[in-house]
Write a structure and sequence with these properties.
It contains 2 helices and 5 strands; from the N terminus they run E-E-E-E-H-E-H. The chain is an alpha+beta fold and 92 residues long. The chain has one domain (4-89). A hairpin with a 2-residue loop joins strand 3 and strand 4 (43-52). The chain is globular, with a radius of gyration of 14 Å. The two termini are 23 Å apart.
Amino acid sequence: MARYRRMNDGEWFAPKRKGYKLACCDCGLVHTLDFRLVPHGGGKRIILRARRHPRATAAMRAADGRKPKTRRGIAVAVDNDKERAFLRALGN
């Protein structure tokens, strides 16, 4: 199972461009997010798509032993030390 970092409500995070996993701490549902920059007017706009990740959801819920309902917020998958250091530099 991927390691997830529990985030506080309103906390900033820096996602990967493709295959970023985002888990809900309330229910354990995991989504895989993909981001894309597209031309928009004279600049660019960020778009994203979210897909349910049934396997990661099952692993997240099994790790808790139940569907978590009392905690609020999200957890983000942190794949390496470089990402952790970047998030620490943001003050998260």
